[in-house]
């Protein structure tokens, strides 16, 4: 078993892990550089040409890895946005640009020619437009997505336990991903699930009555992705059920709600509490996920509790073949478009659609010039940022 990490050593280990992950590839760097993305975009000569779309809830960090199958309360699986940490009421154009940059770096990592990136961005606009037009046929699912969705529908608790907590029982295996809690943390987590509001909401997620059984069986600090650095992140196994009846085991992800770095639409009325903001964004953009989230406070900080369903999976870049690249771009943009469009009336959709179809008369690509030019500008800034990051990482590793 891999050695665990003590509470006092977490920050240093997490910082090294984050740096190593971001240095692995240009696409991994995109996923870990949300703040830099908006700084680069604001400094770009294209920034003033990006249109102000209708103010709706947006993901804010709309890259490929943040899309994937999600189960609703009845176990039905849809591909939706999976991570709403940065969700705000903002400009939907920002989600399009972020997704386009993610596709560009993925294409470059797969050694696809630049013309393929141009075709992928054209396909993005096609897919997004289908969502705005409420086209029930939608964009066809790539084979990789169909495979992941099919796998998701057949998953049960044993699959989730084996994958997430590296076991099939009621204990979390400590090691590389899960670290021991301090007594203060353990007491706070047990107290959290004892609060009437959290208790009632958690039982309700599984269709149990407010007077049902809810027990914390085990908990650990969760080293997950790049987002754990400096924030609260815990995995908790709970037993829920009605008294005298068999219950259910569930895995709850507790995640600190962080400050957003995404530009907010002027005059937008959003919850001031960060956890409430994340939950509101999830319910607007990804109802399958939003209905399984609870806003709370833990150790004096706003947190979001999320039930992790066995069917929740992530789409990875390497799951898409070269032949699927254009189809994947069309489909992923369609998924994002559905999330945006459900918040707009038909007239607003039509206006936004018309704005997206505008392009320069001399354009060589069938997509808005501001989108293509933004990707070109951001790709250059991203490449410079990535290489400088790798230089610093190499120097630190040599010391």
Task: Characterise the protein shown here.
There is one protein chain. The protein has 399 residues and is of the alpha+beta class. The chain has 2 domains: 7-153 and 321-398, no CATH class; 180-258 and 268-308, no CATH class. It has 14 helices and 10 strands. The chain has helices spanning 10-23, 26-31, 34-43, 92-109, 114-132, 143-153, 157-164, 183-194, 196-205, 274-285, 287-290, 325-341, 346-356, 369-398; strands spanning 56-58, 67-71, 77-81, 88-90, 178-179, 213-222, 233-241, 248-256, 293-298, 301-308. β9 and β10 form a beta hairpin. The longest helix is centred in the last third of the chain and has 30 residues, at 369-398. The protein is globular. The two termini are 28 Å apart. The relative contact order is 0.21.
Task: Give a quick rundown of the structure.
The protein is 46% helix and 15% strand. The chain contains 14 helices and 10 strands.
